[in-house]
Amino acid sequence: MKNANDSALRQRAARTIPNGMYGHMAIGPRMPAGYPQFFSRAEGARLWDADGREYIDYVCSYGPMIVGYGNPRVDARAAAQRAAMDIGNGPTETIVELAERLVGMVLHADWAVFSKNGNDATTTCIMAARAYAGKSKVLVANGAYHGSQPWANRRAPGAPAGEHDAFPTYDYNDAANVEQAARASADDLAGIMVSAFRHDAGYHQELVDPQFAATVRRLCDELDAALILDDVRAGFRLSLDASWSLLGIRPDLSAWGKALANGEALAATLGSDRYRDAMASVFVTGSYWYQAAPMAAALETLEILTEEDAPTRLEALGERLRQGIDEIAELHQQRVRQSGPPQMPTIMFEDDAKGERGSAFCSALIERGVYFHPWHNMFLSLAHTEADIDRTLDAVDAAMKTL
Ligand code: PMP
Fold it and tell me: Measured from the CA of 258, which atom of ligand 1 is nearest?
């Protein structure tokens, strides 16, 4: 059996891990047939599953991998730091160096606070916004993802009743709607949280409408509320500054994670001077929030991203993939819709409400050594090459023949 190890691991996991696996990495019924649950090796832009099958990876660990799995420069710098010191009774110089580096790169930022996961950073933003304003409500977009902690998680049980009263919603890219929502909460409004663009899983992506973004900035200025940019997923793929800098709009607070340290556990909250004292007044911490090795990894990752002008390079690779897929789809008379920035494509089919065609397509690609996601945005990395894209396009052509 070609997936014998994966099957055995699934059976073992089912005994000691609820549901066999949890969260976004659970290969539940929504993932196409043939998708592996377990992996054994990663290098560059390649993953090997628990049965040794090799894939060109377009999910990149859902974002963290940006300069290649096992990138030698990043790994060497992290290893050197780890050998010297990772955690202790206080942080190392690395935390200051990284804060300086980020404040130098991200225009709106005058200070940085580090943590581990993206949700730590989005939560820290909310605490800083509330501490500054002495108010409690933060608007969030309907359907947007900011983490799995109860305040951010509306999907399932686990949150106390009333938890989400402090998080009224608005519709992303709808200027009139966000204005109405902000005015309805104006008396108690601490902030408005936005994603870099609309990248909700399961939907075609939508780039941010500049008029919507300008409205959010104007509302925050008028109501003295924080504009909080959640750049956890998009950070450093669209810009080496905050993603909304492409529109000329500066957030007050921003949340970062994922690609920041190329897969080492690290997140960051960045903020402007106006929020410095408020941030200083909030107690935030975690046993591992000061780890120096991931910070060393981040310094090297940021170095590489800058040297290689990552956003431009990733856009070019993503464009090559996008154009190739469009041409192949036309040849096979398949109505594919590719959405979002080329660096972070979502690829789904038109007239495929149940996702059956998308599933069949992805199953056919998995068979051919290409790991696509059927309904979540994907990611390009600096480890992908033109040759990888062209091999992928050959697989896309073969997969579409099977539909
Ligand atoms: N915000 C966004 C936009 C995300 O995509 C994610 C993770 N998918 C998070 C926040 C939460 O990050 P983490 O899973 O690292 O807590």
Answer: 15
Q: Would you say the CB of residue 119 lies under 6 angstroms from ligand 1?
A: yes
Whole-number pLDDT of residue 28 = 86
Q: Is the CB of 261 under 6 A from ligand 1?
A: no
Q: Considering only CA atoms, which residue is closest to atom 10 of ligand 1?
A: 146
- pLDDT digits 0-9 by tens, 266-308: 999 999 999 999 999 999 999 999 999 999 999 999 999 999 9
235 lines ligand 1 (CB under 6 A): no
Tokens of 2: 């070609």
Q: Residue 114 carries which DSSP code?
A: E
b/e map of 45-75 (b: 16 or more CB within 10 Å)?
bbbbbbbebebbbbbbbbbbbbbbbebebbb
pLDDT digits (tens, 9 = 90+) for 34-61: 999 999 999 999 999 999 999 999 999 9
pLDDT at 2 over 90: no
Cβ of 374 less than 6 Å from ligand 1 = no
Which residue out of 60, 117, 232, 269 has the highest number of ligand 1 atoms within 8 Å of its CB and is therefore the one to mutate? Answer: 232
pTM: 0.98
Strand order in the sheet with 39-43: 39-43, 46-49, 54-57, 370-371
- In what helix (H) or strand (E) does residue 270 lie, and over which residues does it extend? strand 267-271
* Mean of pLDDT values over 252-275: 98
Alpha-carbon distance of 201 to 378, in angstroms, equals 10
Phi/psi for 235 (5° steps) reads: -50, 130
Question: 69 in the Ramachandran plot: left (φ > 0), alpha (ψ -120 to 50) or beta?
Answer: beta
Cα–Cα dist 73/263, whole Å: 13
Q: Which atom of ligand 1 is nearest to the CA of 119?
A: 16
Residues 149 and 152: their CA atoms lie apart, in Å, by 6
The preferred substitution site among 65, 116, 119 for testing ligand 1, maximizing ligand atoms within 8 Å of CB, is 119
Closest CA to 226 of 244, 250, 198: 250
Q: Which amino acid is it at 280?
A: A
Give, as one character, the DSSP assignment of residue 262: B
Contact 359, 367 (CB under 8 A): no
* Sign of the dihedral through C-alpha 206, 234, 24, 148: negative
